[in-house]
Amino acid sequence: MPPKRLPARTTPPAFDVPAFLKSARVSSRTVRFSTGAVVFAQGAQANSVFFLQEGGVKLSVLSSAGKEAVVAMLGPGDFLGEGCLAGQPSRMGTATAVMRTALLRIPQRDMVRMLHEHPTFSDRFLAHMLTRNIRIEEDLVDQLFNSSEKRLARTLLLLARYGKEDTTPRVLPKLSQETLAEMVGTTRFRVNFFRNQFRKLGLIEYNGGLKVNSSLLSIVLHD
Hints:
Layout: H1 17-23, E1 29-33, E2 38-40, E3 48-54, E4 57-62, E5 68-74, E6 79-80, E7 94-97, E8 101-107, H2 108-117, H3 119-145, H4 148-159, E9 171-172, H5 177-184, H6 188-200, E10 204-206, E11 210-212, H7 217-221
Helix pairs in contact: 2-3, 4-5, 5-6
């Protein structure tokens, strides 16, 4: 049977990563990107990990046939580029800023040292990785069992960071219908149709941006 609820995302305990890195004398630096800028490209050398401070990043993969798939949307508090810690020599996908974004760039060698020498930091990173794995499993179940309407509702809730204790506004970054369609696994026409339905029901609002109301969860819970 299809899942009846939006799987809860585990929120790691509050932890000030930038302040911790500074106190540990790690040579991280803040890098900023405008909307549409590439943080790192598929196939580029993987030699650093990023911590997302503000904004949003889209992770996508391009097949040999030239077809692109969006595999994740990340927000403040997320790490990205961690594949280098497992010996990944090059980036498996492309990270693109979907809005004005600030990230901390942490060299691979410093990240490895931090994980070995600082249990508190290691615990925070482990919580992130476990949450990411749970999210991947949830996405697979969602694709296999749920309708495109429910998949879109779940995607919008996750993009709005629903359930995250540290975020109260649920206004989404500007995303094209094409990008949403790629994430949901449907067509732009279906995305537009269901978004209009959600708006008419008062589940989402348009006012200088797309605001996601918690009542959108009713679509996911509906049999």
